Structure formats: structure tokens, C-alpha cells
Amino acid sequence: MSSEVRAQRDGDVAVVTMDRASRRNAGNLALWRALADIFASLAADGTRLAILTGAGGHFCAGNDILDYEPVRGDREAEDAWMASIAAAYAAIRGVPFPVVAAIDGACAGAGCGLAMSCDFRIATRGAYFTVPAARLGILYPVAQTRRLAAIVGLGNARRWLYGGQKIDAPAAARDGFLDALTDADPIAAAIEFARPFVDNAPLSIAGAKRMLNALVDGTLDEESEHFARLYREAEDSEDHAEAERAFAQKRAPRFIGR
């Protein structure tokens, strides 16, 4: 486990914490790579829910410009750095269970990309959000722009991207970026929000998550054969048989993910 990111399991729930508090958890190369590695490991160890959060009162202030500066101008090194960010996003989106961002303080730039890679976003009222590309003279990446528009709508995405200003948590919630606001600990609030999902069938959730991601990515049609296979596998699964038995016996089903 990297010193930049730590993961703690409690039963089938994992809390993944970015831990560069002195930099408001802005991502250096080690952090981006550690996120990809940790979520890849969680995908294989029976986790049913993950919470992504940041240490020291902030979620993630984006890409660490100070650490990135030495590679600027070296196209190969720049591409490798950007690929590490994309891999972190892909690892979060690729796990077969829900991931909830528990957000306090800053959530900016690439940090917003992390939050959008999660299935849900819960924030304290003191959190704030910004996509400052227009203030930096750069373009926000295509994949993150597409996700932002899918989450907040085209009009709000234009306002976020053209303005680049700070958006407070209540405004972000009104725009649809947040699923809930909390006055309490955002990690506890995120676990409470997502707890009902943990008891449901893992194969169903994994399939639904993959389909919804494909819908946002515009790849739903080209993956249709894969989804047809997932549908058949779910129909033939032990969990589906367990759900039928539980219904007949008037009890809650006990799903095992097979």
C-alpha cells in the first residue's frame, strides 16, 4: 500500500483515503498509481461497497501542479502521467460494486474527475467544487467533460466549464452533481446512503454498473453481446435461485455473488 493512499476494510465495506493532506490531497504520480492498484485489488477480494475520501478535511485539489511541473514539456512523461490519472478513473469505474465519494473541502479539476468516476457523491455543506480549465488556459479531458454533462446536464456543464468558478456544495447539489448533503461525517453519511445496496445481488449491481457506464461512454450498442451474456449468467446464477427460494419462503435473500 502506498503512503499516499490507504485502504481499510470493515466487513464487506472498504474506505479508501487519499492521504496527502499537506497538498489538500492533490494527486502526484504515486497517488494516481496507488488508486488504480488499490481499486484493482478491491475488485477481486469480495468488497461490496467502497468509500473514496480524502484526509485532512479535503477530498482532492486536483492534479499536483508542483509535482507535475518537472515533467512539463517532456511529451512521453506527460502522456505517462495523464495515463496514470485515466487508469485511476478506470479502476474506480471498473470495480463491480458501488463506490461513493465522501467529500469535504476542495474537490477540484482532476479531483472532480475522481468524484465523477464514483457511482455517487456525498458532501458536507462546506465542500466546494471547481473545474478551472478555462482559468488555466487548458481543456478539460473529453471523457470527464462527457461525464460532467451526463451528471449535471449540458447547460450546467457549460456553466461549470466556461466559468471555472468555485461552486459550493448546496449549488452543486441543485445542479445534480451531488446525491446528498450532510452536516455530519461524510464517510458515515456515505456508508449509510449506500448500505441498502450492499444486501442486493452483486451480479445484478455489477451488470447494471457496467451498462450505465457504457451508456455514458456511448459504447452500449457495441457491448450488446457482452451484456446479453451477463444477462444469461445472472439468470442462471445461484443468487437468482436464492432470490426465488427466499420469495417463496417469505424471507430476505442471502446473496453470495455467484
Description:
The chain has 258 residues and is an alpha/beta fold. It is built from 12 helices and 9 strands. The strands form 2 sheets. A 6-stranded mixed beta sheet has the order 1-2-3-4-6-9, with helices on both faces. The radius of gyration is 19 Å and the shape is globular.
In CATH, what is the homologous superfamily of the largest domain? 2-enoyl-CoA Hydratase, Chain A, domain 1
Largest sheet: 6 strands, mixed
Instruction: Tell the overall outline.
Output: globular
Helix content: 40-55%
Strand order of the largest sheet: 1-2-3-4-6-9
Compute the number of helices: 12
- Amount of beta strand: 15-25%
Q: What's this entry about, in short?
A:
The protein is α/β, with parallel strands linked by helices and 258 residues long.
Keywords for this structure?
single chain, 258 residues, alpha/beta, 2-enoyl-CoA Hydratase, Chain A, domain 1, 2 domains, 6-stranded mixed beta sheet, 3-stranded mixed beta sheet, 12 helices
